[in-house]
Amino acid sequence: MSGRRLRRLLLLALAVGIGYWIYLDRPTLTGLIDSITGPLMSSQAAVKSSERNRVVGEATTAITEGTDAAVGTLRQGMTASEVKELLGSPDKIEPEVVDGVAQTRWTYAKFKRALVMRDGRVTAIALL
Q1: CB–CB of 127/72 below 8 Å?
Q2: Residue 60 structural domain
Q3: Is there a single domain that holds both residue 10 and residue 40?
Q4: pTM
Q5: pLDDT single digits (tens) 65-102
């Protein structure tokens, strides 16, 4: 068998193989493109998901830090309205009498703080 005849036989076998593959799979251009770009697109989806998780995590941290900043600005002498504006309504309000003086204890469980109020002003701040 000559070299030319062998090349023709190989090309014929290749053409028959490609024809058989097309007959079985019926590939489309979009299917071919999807099979090539599929791994890239799935990794992009993973990156987007990871980026979303990072952004949500940072937002949660910022919200937490914001509430810590609000608690950090508490000080003695603040009025009840200033405290409510800063922290919102207390979880529990308990009237008490200490040394014959009426006072109110405001508890903020979320911020782990208890405030003692006398005459509408903060006189003490305690950690829970």
Answers
A1: no
A2: 1-72
A3: yes
A4: 0.49
A5: 445 657 778 889 999 999 998 888 999 999 999 888 89
